[in-house]
Amino acid sequence: VSAAGCSGRPHVLWPRPRSRPLLRPQPRTGLARLHHEGPGGACDVRLRLTKDVLTIQKQDVVCVRGGSHCHRTVTLRRQPGGSLGLSIKGGAEHRVPVVISRMFRGHTADRTGMLFVGDAILQVNGINVENATHGEVVHLLRSAGDEVTITVEYLRDAPSFLNLPSGSPGPAGDHGSGACSPLFDSGLHLNGDPSSTAPSSPSSPVANEPKYEKRWLDTLSVPLSMARISRHKAGAETLRCSAFEVLALDGVSTGILQFRSAQEGAAWLRAVSANIRDLTLQSVRMANKCCSSCDQVVHMGWVIERLEDTGSCQTCCSKFLVLKGSSLHVFSTPPVSTLDWGRAEETYNLCEVLFKLHKLWLPDDCWLHADSGLEPWGLEDPQPYCFSVLVGHGQSRRFSVELGSELAAWATSFQRATFMEVQRAGSRTYTCSWQGDPLCFTVDFALGFTCYDSKTKNVLWRFKFSQLKGSSDDGNTRVKLLFQHLNSRQIEVKELEFQDLTAVLHCVHAFLAAKVASVDPAFVDSQSIGGRRFC
Predict the structure, then answer these.
(1) Are the CB atoms for 213 and 64 separated by under 8 Å?
(2) Is residue 43 a contact partner of residue 58, using CB atoms and an 8 Å limit?
(3) Sign of the Cα pseudo-torsion (390, 396, 397, 402, in order)
């Protein structure tokens, strides 16, 4: 209680409530197998996913006190019975170094605290064995006497066929390397019992004695802003099973990440995709701050385009689509600067574009919702989530995405962007001919369809949207529009000829859909793929 104020009443000073610290989401971690494009096969890695970065980690042995980080020289005193307490794999005949593949808890090698499963043996008693065969190294170790001095270095990129155990943070215990390895696993415990424990425990470490630990170290960081995920093999429609690749905007790639099961791979695909989506939304907000209200970005993201009749072995490629203002932009790389927006490969007016959703195949006849994120790994259909964009002159471009949630987002965004453009534009006019006379045909959001003389501007006929009862075309330039008079059931046919009939029909479809949506809001929900069932 403080001193009294002007009113004579004491002021009570209440303590300020403590602000709660913001809880940051914990990074997601897990193991995967990294496949290299070149020689060397595959190796086990750990993934660490944060909000904006996917990090690839590999195991390495680090010196935490004294000693050298690279090579380690260790002297082993053979136990009674000739045991060194370790096994080895590899050799020059397999084009890999000889590595320690197994260590037995409590035996000589384990008690040093300086040897680890995955260590490549470089020297034995001063003799270089980097290019020695498996049998030669076994012979040297067995005939080296009671004291064996070996120099080792941890093999970070151990080939997967060595089948070395991974994930252990410290020296290997009594776990083995697995019985299904294609390479011979030579046990050097000789007469020792690998399951037994040595009677003597490790002595207390000397103050200046080096200490080593096996740790996961960062080897590659892939920024997720504008990054893309691909399950496709390079240039082909074939999908990888339970594997994908993450490619950053600057070209950095994770390589092919293979997971132990389809479920684990799907979970990682969803997690990485969600972070990329969140970062893309941030980029959209930033871009919209510099754009006028009629030129806002509605949606953007990576897709895979199927190439038709290219004459090459490449059947698909990556494209970056942007729904912005009145247009659909197609980029080869995401636009980053203001100048990049003018460098689109193609630009289409949304009123003249028709979005077509392709048939989906989902297991167990399930329902697809906009937030489901279902991904049928291992489907026979090479492109399970596909859509087409039909543009002018009968052209069509087919795209695919990795997740059902991405397909739902594109369907909803196309619909929203088109409706916004129709209401913003209000009308579109096309030149045409009728009975040989040059005319203008206008689709108006408020008035419907109007045809007038291009010279005199005299209106020849006008019908509302509700009066349009059908249409037919010759697939080229001519179309017949069937209108019903308001006060009778009489049908009147209007035949027109356009230079780009496809663009006109798409425009009529866009204005009709937008008009219905403005009258019946439930129409939008009924047209979204979240409310449809596919089989």
Answers:
(1) yes
(2) yes
(3) positive
Nearest residue to 173 via CA among 103, 88, 108, 80: 103
Nearest to 318 by CA among 331, 329, 327: 331
What is the per-residue DSSP string for 299-363? EEEEEEEEP-S-SSS--EEEEEEEEETTEEEEESS---STGGGG--SEEEEGGG-EEEEPP---G
In a 3-state reduction of DSSP, which class is residue 495?
Answer: strand
The secondary element (H helix, E strand) that includes residue 522 is helix 522-527
More confident site: 450 or 118: 450
Return the structure tokens found at 330: 């197609």
- Rounded CA separation 522/124 (Å): 78
Taking each helix axis from N to C end, the angle separating 501-519 and 404-425, rounded to the nearest 10 degrees, works out to 90
Pairing of strands 396-400, 297-306: antiparallel
Residue 157's SS3 state is: coil
Instruction: Region of 80 please: left (phi>0), alpha (psi -120 to 50) or beta.
Output: beta
DSSP SS3 for 487? coil
Q: Please tell me the distance from the alpha carbon of residue 439 to that of residue 473, in angstroms, as a whole number.
A: 18
**Burial of 428: CB neighbours in 10 Å, binned 0-12, 13-18, 19+:** buried
Chain centroid, CA 525 distance in Å? 28
Look up residue 478 and give its two tokens.
């001519």
How many Å is the Cα radius of gyration of the chain? 34
What is the per-residue DSSP string for 57-123? EEEEEEEEESS-SS-EEEEEEPPTTS--SEEEEEEGGGTEEEEEEEE-TTSHHHHHS---TTEEEEE
Q: How far apart are the first and last CA of the chain?
A: 73
Going from the C-alpha of 135 to that of each of 127, 185, 361, the distances in angstroms are 15, 11, 54
**Total residue count of the chain as it appears in this document:** 535
**pLDDT, tens digit, 9 for 90 and up, residues 130-174:** 999 999 999 998 888 888 999 999 887 776 666 666 544 334 343
pLDDT tens per residue across span 279-326: 999 999 999 998 898 999 999 999 999 887 656 666 889 999 999 999
Q: What is the 3-state secondary structure (H, E, C) of 285-298?
A: HHHHHCCCCCCCEE
Q: What is the rounded distance in angstroms from the CA atom of residue 382 to the CA atom of residue 408? A: 19
**14 burial class (0-12, 13-18, 19+ CB within 10 angstroms)?**
exposed
